[in-house]
Amino acid sequence: MGLFREKEPKTCPLCGQPIHGNASALRDGEVCEACLRKAGLSPSNVGLLKEMRLADLRERSTKAANNEPPAEKPSERPGTCPLCGKKQPIIPWKVQDGYICTACYGKVSTHISRSETEQLPTAALTELLRRVEAWQDEADCECCGKNLLHPAEVPVFLKDGRKVCSSCARKVRINYPTAFVKNDGEPLVILDSLLTLTLEQFKEALPKAAEATASLLDACEGCKAAFEAKGLMKTVTEAGGNSRFFVWGTVKLGSIQAGDRMQVKRNEGVKTFAVLSIQRYMGSANDPAPSAIEALAIGEQGILELPAAASSVYPGDILYKS
């Protein structure tokens, strides 16, 4: 007897025979290819199989043996594909909030995996197809070559119309932040300083940003995030005598969330305090955002609400998170 026993094959719950090769997964089990063929299906019908149970396949096999048409499943019904808008005899491919046709699935599956396709809503897949058709062969970051078609990617268009990915954009955010501006009666506008650069200027900005990042990391001893205070907005003293401070500025490194413990260096030592909440900075020290947000990313301006321990924070200070 050898040291290792040969792994026994799985047994098909429908026919009771060993499954040789790859099993096909249903919602509540795995079956052999022979049982799929009896039901008029094949392993390539992945989208349909994932919606079926063993009982459904057994019923379909019985109907096929009796030359009866199979009962329609929601994914088999004729309908209109939400991506291309065309009527299709079968809409088989499941996505997060519905089904798409085989033609559209073929287009999106060349850029993202099957599991990603199933997890994305039709709105995101529509955006992916729009990018595919609009950009065609010019769908890569013109700095690093990363594919920009995925709907989760937020590319930045530069002054000369060239495109860079969000990862490359973050590398220079230490020197080229974004700002949020709101005029009376107007919607919130995002001003991106990267829009002042051509692709050539963007590439020239990369080493300068790397130097600035290295200098900042050295100053804050390898911190995870850093926030440059631009100004103090106001102080609120509560009924119990506790004070809270609001300071606005820009995230120079990493990201900051409410609850993060920040530090600032002083001659007498390091002061530590927690971020109570975060708000958008709307372009005016007298116009704080009406509600809190979860976090600020590198290059974003915002307002940090701080406790009384932060009374030693002044404009120009770097608050850092270890």
Protein traits:
322 residues; alpha+beta; Elongation Factor Tu (Ef-tu), domain 3; six-stranded antiparallel beta sheet; 24% helix
Could you explain how this protein is built, in words?
The protein is an alpha+beta fold. Among the domains are: 24-71, no CATH class; 76-135, no CATH class; 225-321, Beta Barrel (Elongation Factor Tu (Ef-tu), domain 3), CATH 2.40.30.10. Helix content is 24%, strand content 29%. It is built from 8 helices and 20 strands. Strands 17-16-19-12-11-20 form a 6-stranded antiparallel β-sheet, with no helix packed on it. It has a two-stranded antiparallel ribbon with strand order 1-2. Strands 3-4 form a two-stranded antiparallel sheet. A hairpin with a 5-residue loop joins strand 11 and strand 12. The model has no long low-confidence stretch (mean pLDDT 80).
Distance between the termini: 57 Å
- Fraction of residues in helix: 10-25%
Strand content: 25-35%
Which CATH class of the domain at 225-321 is shown?
Mainly Beta
CATH architectural label of the domain at 225-321 = Beta Barrel
> How would you classify the helix and strand content by structural class?
alpha+beta
- Element pattern in H and E: EEHHHEEEEHHHEEHEEHEEEEEEEEEE
Kindly identify the CATH topology of the domain at 225-321. Answer: Elongation Factor Tu (Ef-tu), domain 3
